[in-house]
Amino acid sequence: MIYYVTGTLSMVEENFVVVENNGMGIRIFMPPARIPELPETGQEVILYTYTYVREDSFQLYGFAEKEELEIFQKVITVSGIGPKGGLAMLSTYTAKEILQAIVTEDDKTIAKTPGIGPKTAKKMILELKDKIDIQADILAPTGDNAEVNDAILGLESLGYKRSEAAEAVRKVAKEGMNAEEILKRSLLNLSR
After folding, report:
1. 104: number of Cβ within 10 Å
2. Residue 48: C-alpha distances to residues 58, 64, 146 (Å)
3. Is 10 exposed, middle or buried (0-12, 13-18, 19+ CB in 10 A)?
4. CA 121 to CA 56: how far, in whole Å?
5. Per-residue pLDDT tens digits for 133-150
6. Any residues with CB less than 8 A from the CB of 50 and at least 6 apart, and which?
7. 66-75 helix and 95-103 helix, angle to the nearest 10 degrees
8. Among residues 74, 77, 107, 165, which one has the fewest Cβ atoms lying within 10 Å of its Cβ?
9. Dihedral (C-alpha) 129, 2, 23, 86: value to the nearest 10 degrees?
C-alpha cells in the first residue's frame, strides 16, 4: 500500500518514530534496536514501510533498508508470528542473520528472539526455507559470489540438500577461492 515514507524525523520513541511529511506526522513502528541507527531528529529520513490493516487498526511498520522490509514481510506470513514478532526478530538480528538462520536451518538462533519459541522457530524454517532466494553474499560473505554459488550448486548435484551445501560452503569459503577449491574443502568438511 505505502511502499516508503520520506520526510523529517520529528520524534523518536522506544518502538516508533514520527516522520513529518507535508504537515502530517506519520507514526511508524520500527525494530527498537534499529531506531538509534537513524539520523538525528530534524534530519531527512526515508523508511520502507509495511501497511498493516485490521478492522480495529491501521499501522505502519518501517525499516531503513529494503532487505529488512522484505524479510519482515516473509516472517509475518508464518502463523504465530505477527508484526510484533517480526519487529522483535529484526531487533534481535539483522536481515542477513535471519536469512542465514533460515537457510542453514538454525532454529536455536531463531528461538532466541523474544516471543519466538522453539516450535515456532522450527515452523518458520519449514515454511520459509523454500521461499527464500539464496544469495551467495548471505551464505558466504567472504567469498566471491559466483564461485560460492557454483560450489553450492556442485554440492547439490552430488545429492546434498541446499541448506547443507550452503552451510558447508559458508564454513570454508574465503576471499579469492575458486569454486573448485571451495567444493573440495566443503566435501572434506562434510565427510568428517
Report:
1. 19
2. 16, 6, 29
3. middle
4. 28
5. 655 444 444 445 678 878
6. 60, 61, 62, 63, 69, 72, 73, 76, 83
7. 40
8. 77
9. -20
Taking only the tens place, the pLDDT of each residue in 39-87 is: 999 999 999 999 999 888 899 999 999 999 999 999 999 988 999 999 9
How does DSSP assign 59-112, residue by residue? EEEEESSHHHHHHHHHHTTSTT--HHHHHHHHHHS-HHHHHHHHHTT-HHHHTT
Tens-place pLDDT, residues 99-140? 888 888 889 999 999 999 999 999 999 999 877 765 544 444
How many helices (DSSP H) and strands (DSSP E) are in the chain? 9, 5
Name the grid cell of 4.
516508503
Higher-pLDDT residue of 159, 73: 73
Q: Compute the C-alpha angle 137/98/86, nearest 5°.
A: 140
Q: Tell me if residue 143 falls in helix, strand or coil.
A: coil
For the record, the C-alpha cell of 64 comes out as 531503513
Classify residue 81 by burial, with Cβ atoms within 10 Å: 0-12, 13-18, 19+.
Answer: buried
Q: Which of 3, 147, 161, 155 is nearest to 73 (CA)?
A: 3
Question: In whole numbers, what is the pLDDT of the chain averaged over residues?
Answer: 87
Q: In whole angstroms, what separates CA 148 from the centre of its chain?
A: 20
